[in-house]
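#struct-pred
JK: can someone run the complex with calcium ion? inputs below
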Amino acid sequence: MGKTLTITLTLLVALCLDIDGYDKILSRSDAKASRCTYTFIVPQQKLTGALCVNTASTNQSEVLALRTELKQLQEQLEKLRGQIEQEGSLVMEVRALRKESNSMNSRITQLYAQLLSEVIAKRDQLFEQKRVEGLLLNATAQALQVSNNYRELEKKYGALTSMMSSMEKQCQCKNSPHSTPVISQPPTNSPKPNVHHNYSSEANDMANDVQRDQSLPAIQQQQENTVVLGSLPTTATAPPTEPPFISFPVTKMPGPWRDCKHALDSGESTSGIYLLRPLGTNRLFQGWCEQSRAQGGWTVIQRRQDGSVNFFRTWEQYKQGFGNLDGEYWLGLEHLYWLTKQGQYRLRVSLEDWQGRQVFAEYDSLHLEPETDWYRLRLGQYHGTAGDSLSWHNNKAFTTLDRDKDSYTGNCAHYQKGGWWYHMCAHSNLNGVWYRGGHYRSRYQDGVYWAEFHGGSYSLKRVSMMIKPM
Ligand SMILES: [Ca+2]
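RT: done, structure tokens with the ligand placed:
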């Protein structure tokens, strides 16, 4: 009995050892070659009598139990195998995902590098723009310096001229004590306003007749005439040879502003020179802002006050502007075009006669057509105290001495000595010759006049044209 129990226990231990690790079983099942081996350790015993083995009930039940357990283990083994297969496919999926993630990462890195280079390029562009703006400001400062130098020279020249004229006077007095002073203008009939004259036969007579500073003494004017005449060609259509010159006194505030109303709305309430840049263009230019008269916010586009600037100029000069910003000047048709393109602007014309009487003419809208349409004038309704001398010029192209766009057979700019929106020819011309004293004597209607205010043969003392958005 004791021997039987020992054999059974040993068998159980061997079985248990053998099925403990299913890894081993798995490997064994995978490797069909290796088979399960069992070792029965039976202690050597000397048989001394009859051997009695009871295998009827106990062994059978144990074997059954073992078989059941083995079956369960096999089932578990199958389950584990299924799980391992599932895990294998999961591993493959994870690997694929990792690979995809890596490629996504590299794509993101590439895109980031691209974005970075674009940002750097944009920053470089910004730097370049700032550099160009800086250069422009430097150029403006240099122009200012040159302008100041020029003014100094002008002053010196003026002093020298007056010294020379006084010396000449003294010489004349010594040589001929009863001689009369030279008259700069021949006494001729002045045409009535609003009347169109046939100038064609007199075209050659005006060949050397250009604007001059009427504020200078007669002898000085004669000297200046001599200088100008010497430099002019002898044809009627010849432009003045002096180059356009705009001085640049100190700009009030940095800007640039869209117009003077923009500057006023931003708190710049003192009149002066401002840097302007209308919307839609890169053109930077300076203009005089009138910030006190008529509620301020006015961009001055033209001013006459002392005859210091010659307005008998070419198309290009009228296009780009000329004169002194703090004195007599013309802002320029191209600048006026861009300014009035920004919205609805009104025009105010201020006039003053030699008795100090001031009047004005306002037009509730103003804009110009582009240069391709010769800066044609588009004007709104008139109101004011001066009388309406500009509506007659509405829808007319601009004419200069070298570009005849008027309705007259000849060139009105030749006779009236300045560029204007001539018709046949004019009810007004604020760009004519600035004559001192009002009523002037000239062969042509070429003064600074506004026919509804003092007629065409009266040259006004002060005039200005300015614009403001509605
Ligand atoms: Ca014509």
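RT: quick notes.
Residues 1-33, 175-209, 217-249 have pLDDT under 50 and may be disordered.
The pocket of calcium ion is lined by residues 404, 406, 408, 410-411 (CB under 6 Å).
JK: thanks, will look after standup
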